[in-house]
Amino acid sequence: MSLSEDIMADMKQAMKDKDKIKLNTVRMIKSALMNEKIKLGHELNPDEELTVLNREKKQREESIEEFVKAKRDDLVEETKKELAVVEKYMPKQLSKDELDKIVSETVEEVDAKGKSDFGKVMKALMPKIKGRADGKEASALVRNHLN
Predict the structure, then answer these.
(1) pTM of the predicted model, to two decimals?
(2) Helix axis angle, 20-40 relative to 73-88, nearest 10°?
(3) Which domains does the chain have, with CATH numbers?
(4) Residue 113 gets which letter from DSSP?
(5) Which of the four pLDDT bands, split at 50, 70 and 90, describes residue 31?
(6) What is the spatial distance between Cα 91 and Cα 19, in angstroms, rounded to a whole number?
(7) How far apart are CA 126 and CA 57, in angstroms?
(8) CB 53 within 8 A of CB 131
(9) Which of 3, 1, 12 is nearest to 88 (CA)?
(10) What region does 92 belong to: left with phi over 0, alpha with psi -120 to 50, or beta?
């Protein structure tokens, strides 16, 4: 089943269940995908869909941080539920060990010698882990490997 089919099915189910948070989140995802499709002028490929989902996920993570700072627990809970809906459509996340292994392989692959090769390693690494690991975590691991 394609992502758009999954989204439509989940939207219908959320309407039947009267689950407003899930319904609104699925609608936002659908809207973001549609906007990206219009912007690019063609049907989205899985990589482009993943980019949109990552953007939606990151927005919610940043919102949660801001709501925690503002002590808005009601909004934190709601946004966490939205984040769970978005993550449902994301690929399975890499464990720390799996990510560390990929980083090690990439460092060897690009023959990185020191900190000056950080950009080269990240450029080779990011397409391998796109959507499956956090970029901040990956960059921290790359720094550790290059030290």
Answers:
(1) 0.76
(2) 60
(3) 3-88 (1.10.1510.10), 96-146 (1.10.10.410)
(4) -
(5) very high
(6) 24
(7) 17
(8) yes
(9) 3
(10) beta
